[in-house]
Design goal:
The complex is a heterodimer. Chain A contains 18 helices and 22 strands. Chain A is an alpha/beta fold. Chain A folds into three domains: about 240 residues, P-loop containing nucleotide triphosphate hydrolases (Rossmann fold, 3-Layer(aba) Sandwich), CATH 3.40.50; about 160 residues, P-loop containing nucleotide triphosphate hydrolases (Rossmann fold), CATH 3.40.50; about 70 residues, no CATH class. Chain B has one domain: ABC transporter involved in vitamin B12 uptake, BtuC, CATH 1.10.3470. Classes of the chains: A alpha/beta, B mainly alpha. Chains A and B meet through helix 3 and helix 5 of A and helix 8, helix 9 and helix 10 of B. Chain B: Keywords: Cell inner membrane, Cell membrane, Membrane, Transmembrane, Transmembrane helix, Transport.
């Protein structure tokens, strides 16, 4: 054996140690997935070590969900391979993937409402999933009780799922993933419905799992969470693999730049316009059990932010102004004239538009096209007699699409196929088409990635410059501070402060929001 | 505090629990109607009349059990009335006196129903055609097959042993009642105590969740439609035996009565909820009301109006039971 040769071998050995395949519990190579000829995932790789929290970052539409669905076996790749713990999982069925030891907590909360908590936890694994065998519900319920107790969650395992809160359902989904004795757990936005206390609980569960060697693939839009919990970060963009690095080598700025692919220097646009005439005045507005004695004004070209904790009454105030749940006390004035708003039609007639926080439920009709959704609320304008004038409808919709920079293949694409950010723009476009003088935006950037957020901010600013009065409800304080002129703070249904945004800080807002 | 998970059942009729009160409504309504009828007509509450009601109800109830499985998974089966005709005709052709032993017509009839149901399941799972359309198609196909196989004529002159299975009595109890009780038990156990039963609720309650839990949707649906076909075949054989004739026109409209029984019994038309006891009570309610109205000399025209009102009322009642967010 000559010296140089053994030297070579040594180098190779060292290389092998650094990136030894045995270190990785899960390896994805060259994964590609096409949907109807469109590349959703392009030659993507992912290497996950035992006992690490591996964050997967990317904007909506970057391919994270597609990658996860391929991993868990809900989709089959067009090319590439997935190997897990020495086994090839590339074309395995979900059932086998789960049995091999990969679990997934789905973002869209995949639960069966009529079944009990225990039945949901063990769904698909009763008696090893053999179709024709007996059930032992008592046994399952006892196992579930024990599991939930270990997690420190106080939920009765025999309760039907439909009686749980969203946060409780989320905890059950987590219990389900853990109960599988999985070696890899995929968590897709696991904290979207959880309170701070429950997030802390989840994180301590994650740390326990890590100690047992379980790998977590963690997807979240919340940056603080990523930097708290992640060991490694992989970034995807436009369906392509960008990079994998230890979390310590990232800061928020580099991570966002990598995700977006361009520098986002000024997230909040600067506005120079001075507020003009009064558009809406609210006096002593009350609704029994929800809020009372609310007083504020909004002016042309002004953004009034509404801050408050969950359940403080923010959305309820908006719903009262828009007539969804009318107020039972107090007065509303539009441009100085007293008005009565008992239903959304009244509000629309007075030039008020409302973008709901729940865009899936109230915002758009999924299967209808971008065009049909945009013109939905103002269709009579584009009709002669009974017939919709296709040409003028299309022109208007195309113009709105261009104005709002809605990314869709054409105005005929169903809204359900768009990303969250673009769906939100469609909803806003629909409201804008009725040219309201006041727009209420309720959590307009919830669940939207950072690039689309920046565009929504720009849009809010444009509306403001055009003289529209805006009420902005948001749980994200930087967003409120960056966009608002004044901020109304509510706490437990009471108004506790109206602050000038220039002078307010996150701390002062929180102080008033917590005021009893 | 965590320790006192008293394991009460979240479903079923066994335990009184605030949330389960709604499930007793149907029973209470049924009992109230029975009491009212007993007071208005002396002929109602007699052993003989009650046996007549249950006998009359049994064939509809068997069909309703089958369609309950299907509706729980979020599907529908409109072809069961036609399966009754096909299987009745098939069984009758093998049931002439002095030909085959009675097990042959029963076996062949059941096999025909299972195959028919499996065909429904096959088309539903292999194509994206909604079950409503698929079974609307097979309903017509089935009716045609029954007419073809019988050459459009009733098949009579059946053996005594064949006529016994749907028309006889054992220890004074009509065979139909015995068969009803047995199959009520079997269907309840399938739904509540087996893995496939659990999967029916899961598939109908949230198909995506079921899929993500590794449940093979197509297998579950195949089983369900096949089972429904099998129960329809049983109903077809019993009906043929009871009327001692294989009728190609038998069972027309039966699917609607069966679906009505399931829905009155609390089966959710959107899937994911329903019980066999509910369906049985639904079938009994339909039977009791039509019997009662007969005894009160109300014409069948009015009976149909009453029945329609009851179906809608039952669904309204069920919607009131749902928790609101």
């Amino acid at each position: 054996m000559t010296k140089p040769r053994s030297f070579l071998i040594n180098i190779r050995y060292a290389d092998a140690v650094m990136a030894s395949p045995q270190d990785y519990i899960l390896q994805v190579r060259g994964l590609t997935k096409l949907f109807a000829g469109v590349v959703a995932l392009d030659n993507v790789q992912l290497n996950v070590r035992m006992g690490e929290v591996h964050a997967l970052m990317g904007e909506n539409g970057a391919g994270k969900s597609t990658l996860m669905k391929l991993l868990i076996g809900l989709l089959k790749p067009d090319s590439g391979e997935i190997s897990f713990d020495g086994n090839d999982l590339t074309t395995s069925h979900v059932r086998d993937v789960i049995r091999q030891g990969i679990s997934m907590i789905h973002q869209e909360m995949l639960v069966v409402p009529e079944l009990t908590v225990a039945q949901n936890i063990f769904l698909g694994r009763e008696a090893n999933g053999k179709l024709f065998s007996w059930l032992n519900d008592r046994n399952l319920t006892e196992q579930a009780a024990q599991l939930l107790k270990q997690m420190g969650v106080n939920i009765r395992p025999d309760t039907q799922m439909k009686y749980l809160s969203v946060a409780q359902m989320q905890m059950v989904e987590i219990a389900k993933a853990i109960s599988n004795n999985a070696k890899v757990i995929i968590m897709d936005e696991p904290t979207s419905a959880l309170s701070d206390k429950e997030v802390a609980m989840l994180f301590s569960i994650i740390i326990d799992l890590k100690k047992k060697g379980v790998a977590i693939i963690y997807i979240s839009h919340k940056m603080e969470e990523i930097f708290t919990i992640a060991d490694t970060i992989t970034v995807l963009r436009d369906g392509k693999y960008i990079a994998t690095k230890p979390a310590a080598e990232f800061d928020i700025h580099t991570l966002i730049t990598m995700m977006v692919g361009r520098e986002i220097d000024t997230l909040f646009p600067i506005s120079t316009i001075q507020p003009g005439k009064e558009v809406l005045s609210v006096r002593q507005l009350s609704r029994k059990g929800k809020f009372s004695d609310i007083n504020f004004d909004v002016h042309e070209g002004e953004v009034l932010g509404i801050a408050g904790l969950m359940g403080a009454g923010r959305t309820e105030i908006a719903c009262a102004i828009y007539g969804l749940d009318p107020a039972d006390g107090g007065e509303l004035y539009i441009k100085g004239e007293k008005v009565v708003i008992n239903a959304p039609q009244d509000a629309i007639q007075h030039g008020i538009g409302y973008v709901s926080e729940d865009r899936k439920q109230f915002g758009f009709i999924p299967r209808l096209s971008v065009r049909e959704n945009i013109t939905l609320a103002s269709l009579p304008k584009y009709a002669k007699g009974l017939l919709v004038q296709a040409k003028s409808e299309s022109e208007v919709a195309d113009a709105m699409m261009a104005d709002l920079r809605i990314k869709a293949s054409s105005s005929n694409q169903p809204v359900v196929q768009l990303s969250g950010g673009n769906q939100q723009k469609v909803v806003i476009g629909k409201i804008l088409l009725s040219s309201p003088s006041l727009i209420i935006l309720d959590e307009p950037t919830r669940g939207i990635d950072i690039g689309a957020k920046a565009e929504i901010y720009k849009l809010i600013n444009q509306l403001k410059e055009a003289g529209t009065a805006i009420i902005l409800i948001s749980s994200e304080l930087p967003e409120l501070l960056g966009l608002s002129d004044r901020i109304l703070v509510v706490s437990q249904g009471k108004q506790t402060a109206v602050l000038l945004a220039k002078e307010a800080t996150q701390e002062t807002i929180m102080h008033y929001a917590m005021e009893p | 505090m965590e320790k006192d998970f008293t394991l009460i059942k979240g479903d079923g009729y066994g335990v009184l629990h605030m949330r389960n009160i709604g499930k007793y409504v149907l029973l209470i309504v049924l009992v109230a109607i029975c009491i009212a009828l007993s007071m208005t007509t002396p002929r109602f509450f007699t052993i003989q009349n009650l046996m007549i009601i249950v006998t009359q109800v049994s064939i509809n109830a068997l069909l309703a059990f089958g369609v309950t499985f299907v509706i729980i998974t979020g599907g529908i089966d409109l072809s069961i009335g036609s399966i009754v005709a096909v299987t009745g005709v098939v069984a009758a052709s093998f049931a002439h006196a002095d030909t085959y032993p009675v097990i042959v017509p029963i076996g062949v009839g059941l096999l025909a129903g299972l195959l028919f149901g499996a065909f429904n399941g096959f088309v539903v799972t292999r194509t994206k055609v909604p079950p409503f359309i698929v079974t609307l198609g097979t309903m017509t196909i089935g009716r045609g097959l029954a007419l073809i196989l019988s050459k459009g004529r009733p098949i009579s002159n059946l053996s005594d042993s064949f006529n016994f299975i749907g028309g006889g009595k054992v220890l004074g109890v009509p065979t139909l009642i015995i068969i009803l009780v047995v199959f009520f038990g079997i269907c309840t156990v399938i739904l509540k105590k087996t893995v496939i039963g659990r999967y029916m609720y899961a598939v109908g309650g949230n198909e995506q969740a079921a899929k993500a839990s590794g449940i093979q949707l197509s297998k579950v649906k195949m089983v369900v439609y096949t089972l429904c076909g099998g129960l329809a075949a049983l109903a077809g054989i019993l009906l043929t035996s009871r009327i001692t004739t294989g009728q190609p026109n038998a069972g027309a409209g039966f699917e609607l009565d069966a679906i009505a029984a399931a829905i009155i019994g609390g089966t959710s038309t959107s899937g994911g909820a329903g019980t066999m006891i509910g369906t049985l009570l639904g079938a009994l309610l339909i039977g009791v009301i039509s019997n009662g109205l007969d005894l009160l000399n109300v014409t069948s025209y009015y009976q149909q109006v009453v029945m329609g009102v009851i179906i809608i009322g039952a669904v309204v009642l069920n919607s009131l039971k749902q928790p609101s967010n």
